[in-house]
Automatic annotation (TrEMBL):
Keyword NAD belongs to the record: yes
InterPro entries to which the protein is assigned, alphabetical: D-iso_2-hydroxyacid_DH_PdxB (IPR050418), D-isomer_2_OHA_DH_cat_dom (IPR006139), D-isomer_DH_CS (IPR029753), D-isomer_DH_NAD-bd (IPR006140), NAD(P)-bd_dom_sf (IPR036291)
Origin: domain of life: Bacteria
Keywords for the protein's UniProt record, in alphabetical order: NAD, Oxidoreductase
All copies of domain D-isomer specific 2-hydroxyacid dehydrogenase NAD-binding, residue ranges: 250-431
A Pfam family of this chain: 2-Hacid_dh_C
Protein name: D-isomer specific 2-hydroxyacid dehydrogenase
Sequence similarity: Belongs to the D-isomer specific 2-hydroxyacid dehydrogenase family.
Domain D-isomer specific 2-hydroxyacid dehydrogenase catalytic span(s) in chain numbering: 159-462
Amino acid sequence: MKIVDKMKDEDLGVALIYNFTKGYQKAVPMEMYDIVLPLLYNDTFRNEILNHHSFHDCLLACASKDENFKENVLSALEDYKTMTSKALGIAMIQHILNFQIVDQTMCGLPLETHILELNEALKLGEMLQNLKYHDVKGMLKKNDKKIVILQSASVGYDVDLSRFESLGDVVMYEDTTQDQIRERIKDAHIVITNKNILNESVLKGMHQLQLICLFATGTNNIDLEYCRQQGIKVANVKGYSTDTVAQHTIALLMHLIEKNAMYDKYVKSKEYALSGRFSYFDEVFHDVSSLTWGIVGLGDIGRKVAFIATAMGAKIQYYSTSGQNATSDYQQVDFETLLKSSDIISIHAPLNEKTKYLFNEDALRKMKDNAYLINVGRGGIIEEKALVKVLNEGHLAGVGLDVFEHEPLLENDIIYSIQDMNKVILTPHIAWGSIEARQRCVDEVYENIMAFLNGINRNIVNL
C-alpha cells in the first residue's frame, strides 16, 4: 500500500478502518478507531509495521528512525478525529461496518464487502487486538519513570508482561533474593513485587521510590506505615483469584475425602483386575451433603466456597477472624464452636496478628478426629509443628495445604516428617494461579500503575 497526501481522504479512511476491523478479529471499541488513521497515515509507521510482530517493537523501530515519531502521532490524533468520524459514517451507510453494543461498549464489526485488502491495516488490527486505547496512548507518551519488576517468574512464564513497557523504562528480574533488593531498586520510581520483604531497612534512602505494586492481595510483607511516612504508596490487587482459589479448595478436599489417589493406585497396579470384585470399598468416603463445613474468613473467597459447598449440600457455618464480615446467609459461630462441630474446615483468612498460629496445638486438638482441614489462606495461620504432631498421633482424617510457613519449603522442613502422607495433599502455593487469574493479576497491576501516573489512587492500601 502506497499512500500519498492527496489520497488521505474519507474513502481511503473507510478502507483502512474496514481492514483494521478485519485484522482485529473481534468487536472493535469505538475509541480504538481514533488511532488507526494517525498511525497508518504516518510514513515511518507504515514502512515499519510489516517488519515486526508486536506493536511495541514497531514503535521502538519507528522512534529510532524518527525522534519526533511519537509526538507527531499524538498530535495527529486530534487532527484526524473528524476524518475518522466521517469514514465510520460512510462505512455504516455503505453497510461495510455494523455497530453493536458489546459488553456495554459500542463496537464495530466488519460486514461482507469487496474492499481491497490493505496488509498494513490488517496487521495493525492484529497488533492491537489485546491492547486498550489508553495502552496505545501510553506507549506513545514519553515516560521517564523507572519500573523495576523484582519477581516476574512469580506470575509464570506464560503471562505477558510486555505491556508494562508502555508505562516507563522497565527493568525485569525473574526473581530477587532479599540481599539483592536494595541494589536493584536504588533508582526506581515504581517497584513491582510479590513476596519480597520491603521493610524500613530495605527501603531507607530510596528517595525516588513513589509506588510499590504487588502481584498479590496480601500486604504483610510490606512495611505499610513506613511507606506512608515516606510518601510511598502501596497498591495491591483484589478479586482476581476468587474463583480460582475456591476451585482449588474444592479440589484439595475432593482429593482427600474421595480417596481418589488410593483408588487410582489400586486400579493402575492391577490389583483391581486380580481382585475378582467389581467394586472395592476398603477406603471409606462420605457425601459432602452429610457434613458440616466450617469456613474461617468470610471474604470474597470464603463466600465463594460457601456458595459451592451449599450447592453440594453441606451445612455451612463460619468464623470471622476480623469480626467485620457478617451475613445472615450462613450461621456465624465462635471459633471454639467451629472447631468442635465442623467436619470440614477451610481457611480463607489473611495472616495478621489475629490469625498468626490461630490453629495451634490446642485448636487442632479441639477439631473432630475425623475432620478435614484445608488451608489456602496463609501458611502462618497453622502452627505446622503442632499440625505434624497431631497428625502423627492419628488425629484428623486429612489435611490439604497450599500455603506453608516457609515458601518454598525447607529441604528438612517439618512438613516432611508427617508419617502418613496419604492423609495429606500438598501443593506449592498455586491455588490463586490459573492462567486466567494470573493474567487478571498482571492486568490489575498495570491498571494500578496507569492510575497512579494519572494522579488517581487505585487500590492504594496505606493512605
